[in-house]
Every structure is written in structure tokens, then in C-alpha cells.
Design goal:
The chain is of the alpha/beta class. It is built from 23 helices and 17 strands.
Length: 662
């Protein structure tokens, strides 16, 4: 009996041991387990930034004077992240065809928002003689863009002209086409997100490009004698709601607006569902303290209709809270009746009850007629009648068409002279600018190394540490010290994008270093290995394994590249302060998406004597040449190509200090 009990005890102990080993993999160095730790860290910064905004807004609500002051401050911040627009040149507008419909007429139009950037649009004109009030319709994320707008038909039947504009990446303005002239990605949201990378690297955003096209569309409306330029409006749903919000924040000519199926609270949405599509974010919005509601604030006290669905995937609670916030602002400005929230018992988009609310709102403010509009059977415009180009795409219909990737690449090439001048400046000036672009400062808090494990091997010992620096993510690392350290040994700092397990579990690679007598420090920087974000929380349509953390980082004004440079500094501080490493130079090995981080760290920290990089892209300009690259947002530094590229840092770092092995 005793033997059976003892056997049972040993079996239970064995299973407990196995369970413990499964719960704590051998290379884990952090003292805790949380797969969303990095995202939680980033969201704390988001909350902190918006807490400052709440304090500023509370002060603004104290008086009309303070409210107007807040509005002007927000406008300045918004202009800073929106960036400078190019000069206006001729629209070269052309009405391709005119067709009479049932109760209205339709014109297909092409204009150039910039030379060789062709914009396709449909103008729905009411019957009768103008000048008519007019609105832009900014399209949601449907691949067909402007085709078949029930909203435009309803408004035209009620006396309001509508110009429906194909956004970049939709309708006849697809930018990424295959060899047959067909869309080369899964849809507008993917294309927008991929294109936005190049825009960000040049210090702009796809949202800003859309704002520019839409402002030029207003220029076109103003040029027409049958349109009343003093009665202009804008509306849109979903992605079109995004465009409307961004446009009203900087466009004085608009008199009334409607935002549908987009309005919510950015802070809440980022936490609940993560970042949206690339065209729905401008880097630095959080750092600037700009919420979605602030787009309406910049337009206030002009009339705005917000339309939401109770069962929309766009968070309704955030919409209600944002509206309540705006309501207080409009009251302070003496314009309570100029703001309305229309709630539908529906989901996403603009069904009939929302269309009726839109038409009623616009007629009230543009036509001084508040009679409720009721929709009857609407005539439908055939897709063939709304097409503007001969091929169905501007980039195949016009031999000189300049696609967004080509435009971005040309702009990067034009900036090469400015980059050269920048890199000729003294190192302290360059260093300060690099840190500013990445959104980081040089650490002032010390690093503490906490040992979390130890394993003795046949020819080496392994020590696990978590490196702690106040205000930063802990850095997990494993130090491998060979039994015999060579007099010429290096401290080899290894960064593998697949995680440090990839090295620790590769016995031949590990032994090759140990047999040379080198000391290894194998680490996971934030977002890799132990703190990698779960794949399920990053939609594959964005082509980025850590899309949500990369975009939130850009939102807060601290790129992931910069944050990871801080992690390397923590590792180098640890190595430099530990007596076991004294007298040995530091060699940095990095692969894959770690490449640009390693280049920046090596340039900024001369304690890194040598850096070798493999399987990584070598130039930010390469991302412009290949807008379909995977994991691009991981290494985006907003505006970097206005000042330098990776090769510039490599040359400036000194001959042989930074090398690509392939």
C-alpha cells in the first residue's frame, strides 16, 4: 500500500513538474506572463495624453472666450500634423459626358488635383436653373467608389447638387494594379493602409492626400456658375465619414456637414478594437491631443449632423460621449441647435432613415426649409453611366498618370539634395533631429538588472535577466557565458525577429559562439518574443504582424523604432556596467525587421563597436518602391525621408561599423 502511495506521489510530482515546465519555457526571462503587455503599456500613454486634453477642454468650457481659444489651438496642432499642402495649379477639369436621369442630370468629370493626379467624380444636378447649393459626397470604403449613390440621388431630387468623388484607392482610382489592370490587393482598406506607409515616411499621410483632393473638388464646385459657392457642404459614411471629419477641420468654405458611421472616441476605439485602416490615422494625433470630436470643434459653431447606428461596429457609446462633449461646446458658443446626433436602430452605413435625416438636415441649413424629407423609390444610375475613363482606371487610361507610389518615390528623389545637406551638419544636430523624429529622448533613469533564472550547461552557463528602466518596457535577455572566455572575446548582442528562442534552441549556432569564447547576450526587444502581440489581434489585411502596436505608437508620437532603440540602450548600459563584460567590445547582430533599429542604435551609440545585419531592407526608399512590403509599419519613422535614409546613417557612422551581410 505504501509503495502504491509513493508511486502515486511521484507520478503527481512528475505531472506538476511537467506542467511547470510547460508554463515557463526555458528561455523566458520576464518574471510575469502577459501577451498583451506591450499594448497595455502603449495604451497607458494614450490615456495619459487624452487626460491632458480633458483638462484643457474643461478649462475651455468655462467661457466662450476660452472655448474659441481652445478651438484655435486645436486648429494649429491639426495643421502641424496635417502638413503643408502643395501650391494649387490648374484643375484641367473636363466634363466627359452629360446624361439626363429621372428628375436630375448626371455629369461625369475628371480633374487634376495635382499635375497628373487624376480625380474622377460624378456631379448630380437638380432640375431647374441654378445656382444650386452643393455638397461633396466622400465615399466609404467600397471598392466601387462613387458608383451608385442613393444619397446623391435623394439630395439632387431635393434641390441640392452633389459631387461624388472617387477617393484614392477606390472606384476608378485604384493605385495598386496587377498586370491586367485589376486591383492587386483585397480591397480599399488594404490599399489605403499600404499606401499610407510611403506617405508617413515623407512626413504626410494618406488622409492628408485625401483632404487635398477633396479641397480641390471644392475648388471645382466653386468654378461652376450653376453652383452657389456660398452654400457648400460635405458628408460621408464610414471611410467617407473619416474624410468628412478631416476635411471640416481645415476647410472654411464649408457651411454644413454630416459625419455618418465613423464618429466615436479615438481613445476608446483604440482600446476596444485597435487602430482602423491606414487612411483613418495621422501620426502624432494623440501627442497633439486631438480627438475625433476635435474635428467638429474646429468647425464649430457651424451645423453638424452626426449619425450613428446602435449596432454599428463603430462604438456607439464613444459616439454618444463624444456628442455630449460637443454639445457642451456648442452651448458655450451659443449654437446648441446647430449640432445633432441621429441614432438609427441599424448597423453600419447609411440606410433610408439616415438618408432622410441627411436630406432634411441639409435642406434646413442650405435651403432654409426644415420640412422633413421622405424617400420614395429612387431612380438608379447604371454603373456604365457613372464611369469617367475609357478603361475604368485613371492609371491605365492616361499615359502620363502619376500613381501615388510613383508620386511618393519622385518626392523622395527630389528630397535627396536636402538629405545630403542635412547629413553634412554636426553630429549633435543630426542626433537631436533623429531623436525628435523617433519621438524619444536619451534615457535619464538608470537600468536595473534582475536575475530571474540560471542554468548550468556542459560548456557554458546561462543567466536570465529582466532589465528594468523606469517608464520603459522591461527587456528580457539571456546571457550565455562560455566556460573559457577568449582574451579577444566580444560581447555579442543578438536580436532575432523570431524571438530569442530561435537562437537558444539552435545548438549549432549557440556552440559556434561558445567555442570561440564569445559572450552572448540574447534579447527580445519590446513587441518581440516574450512580449510579441498575439496574431489574432492583428488583422491580416493590414500586412503587419504588429499593426495595432505600430499604429498606436505612431499615434502617441513615439515610433516603435525609437522605443526599441531605447531597449538597445538598456542592454548596452547593462553590458557596460557589469564587470563580467569589462574589456570586451560590443558586437550587435540583428536580422529581419530589427535591421533599421540596429542601424539607428549603432549610429547613436558609439559603445556598439560593430553591427552586422541580415535579411533586412536597406533603405526607406525601398519601401516606396515596394508598397506591398510586409511589416512596413514596424519601421516607420514619420518624415524620415525629409532628412535621411538608412544608408546615410551607415556612412556617417564610420567605415565598417554597420554592415549588411546579404
Amino acid at each position: 500500500m505504501r509503495l502504491k502511495l509513493k508511486t502515486l506521489f511521484l507520478i503527481c510530482l512528475l505531472f506538476q513538474t511537467i506542467g511547470s515546465l510547460q508554463a515557463q519555457p526555458g528561455s523566458n526571462a520576464l518574471s510575469w506572463r502577459n501577451t498583451s503587455a506591450y499594448n497595455s503599456y502603449l495604451m497607458r500613454e494614450v490615456h495619459s495624453q487624452y487626460q491632458v486634453r480633458q483638462s484643457q477642454l474643461a478649462t475651455a468650457l468655462g467661457s466662450e472666450r476660452e472655448m474659441l481659444k481652445y478651438r484655435e489651438e486645436i486648429r494649429i496642432r491639426y495643421q502641424n500634423i496635417l502638413g503643408r499642402f502643395p501650391g494649387k495649379e490648374s484643375l484641367n477639369a473636363k466634363v466627359v459626358k452629360h446624361s439626363q436621369q429621372n428628375g436630375f442630370s448626371l455629369e461625369t468629370i475628371i480633374f487634376e488635383s495635382l499635375p497628373q493626379r487624376y480625380v474622377t467624380a460624378n456631379l448630380y444636378l437638380p432640375e431647374g436653373k441654378g445656382p444650386f447649393p452643393a455638397s461633396l459626397e466622400l465615399c466609404g470604403h467600397g471598392i466601387n467608389g462613387k458608383a451608385g449613390s442613393a444619397e446623391a440621388v435623394l439630395l439632387a431630387l431635393n434641390g441640392i447638387a452633389v459631387l461624388v468623388v472617387d477617393p484614392i484607392g477606390q472606384g476608378e482610382r485604384i493605385q495598386l494594379l496587377d498586370g491586367n489592370g485589376k486591383p492587386d490587393t483585397r480591397g480599399a482598406t488594404t490599399e489605403h493602409t499600404l499606401l499610407n506607409v510611403g506617405c508617413n515616411l515623407l512626413g504626410s499621410s494618406l488622409a492628408a492626400y485625401e483632404v487635398w483632393d477633396n479641397r480641390r473638388a471644392l475648388d471645382y464646385l466653386e468654378s461652376r456658375p450653376d453652383i452657389d459657392k456660398n452654400r457648400l457642404a460635405a458628408y460621408g459614411s464610414s471611410g467617407g465619414g473619416t474624410q468628412t471629419a478631416y476635411l471640416i477641420g481645415c476647410e472654411e468654405r464649408l457651411k454644413v456637414a454630416c459625419i455618418c458611421s465613423y464618429f466615436s472616441q479615438r481613445e476608446r476605439v483604440l482600446e476596444l478594437s485597435g487602430p482602423s485602416d491606414g487612411c483613418q490615422h495621422m501620426p502624432g494625433e494623440g501627442k497633439a491631443g486631438i480627438e475625433i470630436a476635435d474635428m467638429v470643434t474646429m468647425f464649430a459653431p457651424k451645423p453638424v449632423l452626426i449619425m450613428s447606428g446602435l449596432y454599428d461596429f463603430v462604438d456607439y457609446w464613444g459616439a454618444a460621449q463624444g456628442f455630449h462633449e460637443l454639445q457642451k461646446q456648442y452651448e458655450v458658443l451659443g449654437a446648441r441647435n446647430a449640432l445633432r446626433l441621429f441614432t438609427a436602430e441599424s448597423g453600419h452605413g447609411m440606410p433610408v432613415e439616415k438618408r432622410e435625416a441627411l436630406a432634411t438636415w441639409f435642406r434646413s441649413w442650405l435651403c432654409k426649409d426644415s420640412t422633413p424629407v421622405h424617400e420614395k423609390q429612387l431612380p438608379r444610375v447604371a454603373d456604365s453611366e457613372s464611369q469617367c475613363t475609357t478603361t475604368g482606371q485613371v492609371n491605365t487610361a492616361f499615359a502620363d498618370a502619376l500613381s501615388i507610389p510613383k508620386y511618393n518615390l519622385n518626392l523622395a528623389l527630389a528630397l535627396s539634395a536636402e538629405r545630403k545637406i542635412f547629413m553634412q551638419q554636426p553630429d549633435p544636430v543630426i542626433r537631436k533631429k533623429i531623436l525628435g523624429l523617433m519621438g524619444i529622448g536619451e534615457p535619464t533613469e538608470p537600468v536595473t538588472a534582475e536575475q530571474t533564472g540560471f542554468a548550468q550547461g556542459r560548456t557554458s552557463d546561462q543567466y536570465r535577466y529582466q532589465l528594468l528602466r523606469k517608464g520603459e518596457m522591461p527587456v528580457p535577455c539571456v546571457v550565455v557565458i562560455p566556460e573559457k572566455i577568449a582574451s579577444t572575446a566580444k560581447v555579442v548582442l543578438c536580436l532575432n525577429e523570431s524571438g530569442k528562442d530561435q537562437i537558444l534552441n539552435d545548438e549549432s549556432t549557440l556552440n559556434s559562439f561558445v567555442n570561440q569564447g564569445d559572450i552572448l547576450v540574447i534579447a527580445d526587444l519590446r513587441g518581440y518574443g516574450e512580449t510579441a502581440d498575439p496574431a489574432v489581434l492583428n488583422d491580416v489585411k493590414y500586412w503587419n504582424r504588429e499593426y495595432r502596436d505600430a499604429m498606436i505608437s505612431l499615434h502617441t508620437g513615439r515610433s516603435i523604432v525609437g522605443q526599441r532603440v531605447v531597449d538597445i540602450w538598456s542592454l548596452v548600459d547593462f553590458i557596460s556596467s557589469d564587470g563580467r563584460f569589462a574589456g570586451h567590445s560590443i558586437k550587435l547582430l540583428a536580422d529581419g525587421s530589427y535591421g533599421p533599429v540596429a542601424v539607428h542604435a549603432a549610429y547613436l551609440d558609439r559603445r556598439i563597436a560593430q553591427t552586422e545585419i541580415s535579411r533586412s531592407f536597406k533603405s526607406y526608399a525601398a519601401l516606396l518602391q515596394n508598397p506591398k512590403a510586409d511589416d512596413a509599419y514596424t519601421n516607420v519613422i514619420p518624415g524620415v525621408l525629409k532628412f535621411y535614409d538608412l544608408k546615410d546613417l551607415i556612412l556617417k557612422a564610420g567605415k565598417g561599423r554597420i554592415q549588411f551581410l546579404d
